[in-house]
Specification:
It catalyses: (6R)-5,10-methenyltetrahydrofolate + H2O = (6R)-10-formyltetrahydrofolate + H(+); (6R)-5,10-methylene-5,6,7,8-tetrahydrofolate + NADP(+) = (6R)-5,10-methenyltetrahydrofolate + NADPH. Pathway: One-carbon metabolism; tetrahydrofolate interconversion. Catalyzes the oxidation of 5,10-methylenetetrahydrofolate to 5,10-methenyltetrahydrofolate and then the hydrolysis of 5,10-methenyltetrahydrofolate to 10-formyltetrahydrofolate. A six-stranded parallel beta sheet has the order 1-11-8-7-5-6. Strands 3-2-4 form a three-stranded parallel beta sheet, with helices on both faces. The chain has about 300 residues and is of the alpha/beta class. The protein starts with a strand and ends with a helix. The protein contains ten helices and eleven strands. Helices cover about 40% and strands about 15% of the residues. The chain has two domains: about 90 residues, Rossmann fold, CATH 3.40.50.10860; about 140 residues, NAD(P)-binding Rossmann-like Domain (Rossmann fold). It is globular and about 55 Å long. α6 crosses α7. The structure holds NADP nicotinamide-adenine-dinucleotide phosphate. The site of NADP nicotinamide-adenine-dinucleotide phosphate (NAP) has 25 residues, from loops.
Length: about 300
């Protein structure tokens, strides 16, 4: 059996087209569009490239996008004042601060200063708490876990009553996706196990999974014989394993031995082209949700 490939690149296209459509309708109805500000401190090439991609995507769906670049030596107080300004700007519905910040600035202090109702990354403790409570309490879901859940749902995988095994317990992927899959509701209602480096028999747990979500950051950690035939496998790992001399680009590999796993799994995400492309799409979705709530359209 060869697995059906769940393409993040294709699903992202669908989501962005849906968002663009909703933005056009919003503009017609209330004469406004979602506003997103991206704050970049300094000029680290990796951060510049992430921010550029976010800005390009936001513009492509019709958002009012403000790229606010600040010098490397901005003081913590000035950065906090800037956040406060956007917290009070009614045309801004989402605030993004690109990490990492320079060493003289406390990341946590800055992220916690963002109004939780504009925290479209969903890293603020208030949004983490809302996720835990679930249901109507949730305003935004963190983007990578939200992308994973969206892929599971759009691939037609049954989640209700399914055995879900999550490899990894980080705050940005493992813990939130495990909690989301265990909640009551559509695309959830699963029975969830979280495994990590202290787990006694990783293989035995993985073998039970109807849905296996792997976010460990270890290339080829999951062997094909650990996969239950027909399971849906979501590989979150992005590992640089070398350099392609011809293109000058990094060679990327996931946490699952993809070539052999796809002969056993029912559905599987590739790396690259799987979970990766979904994260920014979900960031746009959160910004749209925020604007809809603020403008009374929900
Ligand atoms: P992380 O903070 O390093 O956490 C990794 C988790 O995996 C930890 O909980 C660790 O267990 C567990 N783990 C590591 N090696 C293991 C092993 N041999 N057996 C069992 N568990 C093991 O990583 P992260 O931030 O969650 O990211 C995970 C991967 O996803 C990375 O490759 C990252 O690049 C990728 N990622 C992709 C996206 C995206 O595509 N948009 C977004 C975020 C992350 P302990 O807690 O016991 O140490």
């Amino acid at each position: 059996m060869t697995a059906e490939i769940i393409s993040g690149t294709e699903i992202r296209k669908e989501i962005l087209a849906e968002i663009k459509q909703e933005v056009e309708e919003m503009k017609e109805k209330v004469g406004k569009v979602p506003g997103l500000v991206t704050i970049l401190v300094g000029k680290s090439p990796a951060s510049v490239s992430y921010v550029t991609l976010k800005v390009k995507t936001a513009l492509s769906v019709g958002f009012n996008e403000i790229q606010d670049d600040q010098p490397e030596d901005i003081s913590e107080a000035d950065l906090l004042a800037l956040i406060d300004k956007y917290n009070n700007d009614e045309n801004i519905h989402g605030i993004l601060v690109q990490l990492p910040l320079p060493k003289h600035i406390d990341d946590k202090k800055v992220l916690n200063a963002i109004n939780p109702d504009k925290d479209v990354d969903a890293f603020h403790p208030v949004n983490v708490g809302r996720l835990m409570i679930g249901g109507d309490e949730v305003r935004f879901l963190p983007c990578t876990p939200a992308g994973i859940q969206e892929m599971i749902v759009r691939s037609g995988t049954e989640t209700s009553g399914a055995e879900v095994v999550v490899v990894g317990r980080s705050n940005i992927v493992g813990k939130p996706i495990a909690m989301m899959m265990a909640q009551k509701g559509v695309g959830a209602n699963s029975t969830v196990t979280i495994v990590h480096t202290r787990t006694k028999d990783l293989a035995a747990h993985c073998k039970r999974a109807d849905i296996l979500i792997v976010a460990a950051g270890v290339p080829d950690l999951v062997k094909p014989e650990w996969i239950k035939p027909g399971a849906t496998v979501i590989d979150v790992g992005v590992n640089r394993v070398g350099m392609n001399e011809a293109t000058g680009k990094a060679i990327l590999k996931g946490d699952v031995d993809y070539d052999r796993a796809k002969e056993i799994a029912g559905k599987i995400t590739p790396v690259p082209g799987g979970v990766g492309p979904m994260t920014i799409a979900m960031l746009m979705k959160n910004t749209l949700t925020s604007a809809k709530k603020t403008l009374g359209l929900e």
